[in-house]
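From the pipeline queue, job 12 of 40. The input is one protein chain; the requested action is below.

Action: predict structure.
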Amino acid sequence: MNELTKIKKGEFSPVYLFLGTESFFIEEARAALLGSAMPIEDQELNVGIYNMEEVPLANALEDAESMPFFGDRRLVMIDNPYFLTGEKAKSHLEHDTSWLENYLQQPSETTILAIFAPYEKIDNRKKVSKLLKNKATMVDVKPLEPSASRNYLSQLIRNAGYQMERQSVQFFFERIDDNLSQGVRELEKLFLSARDDKIITKQMVIDLVPRNLEQNIFDIVNLVLKKQADQAIQIYRDLLLQKEEPLKINAILLSQFRLLLQVRILAKKGYQQPDMAKLLRIHPYRVKLANQQIRTLDEKVLMEAHLGLVEIETKMKTGDGLKEIQFELFMLKYAQA
């Protein structure tokens, strides 16, 4: 029985550490704690939520050591405990971690202390981190691997009584980029749209599930490779209007062209697609798409585009010219080459 199941059954530990960045599992854990720890009427007085980027740790611990008001227990949630990581302080708050260290040695019997650390890992060199891992109940809320995410969402669709053709399901997974949290959110819209006959079509996915940043950049990459400057610049400007950072867009573009070059070089050396995926540690589907993109392209063309994007990154980071127009200048120059 996993820890979330125990919580839902009303079996609690005095201290939890939820470690990971998967927002769907984080929200599921919070809902399970709130739903199982106490009746709704007791929550206003006996639930405390403390963001460590806004309030001192001492406030949360003082609450944790207090007796519950007209109830059996208190629930104290600590969010963004960046003092457990190697990150620099995000505020000028003073966090007394020694108080937390002492609390962990003898936690309150009438309090559930839940620490939500939305990070890939914490700094195990710190005494407080070591104690937490030793004394708290660890709950893994990290993102699933793509295959596990697809299985989870497929099961969710079946459990809800809906049907999707294989092609539609594959297209849906590509649209959400195998992101579990986004997949769950988008399925709510698809379920509502298909509520009459319980059949989700590919057209519903096209109409209701928005393209993500990476998919828009995939289109830009294709347009760059075809030297279609006007269309590439238009999508780029649309991304800027959506408040995407120029440096972030360029970083993803650069990463994609690096992948295209790697696939081209490995193909010349006789590697097959499954071997490329293992060597590059990426999903086989990405290798397949890369192969399709470079099938008729010269390696020199890829290299020129890659070097141009490297130059853009340097200019953006050094403040050489306006960041917002660097890609446009590159695209116009590259298309005319």
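Job complete. Strands lie at 15-19, 47-51, 74-79, 111-117, 137-140, 163-164, 199-200.
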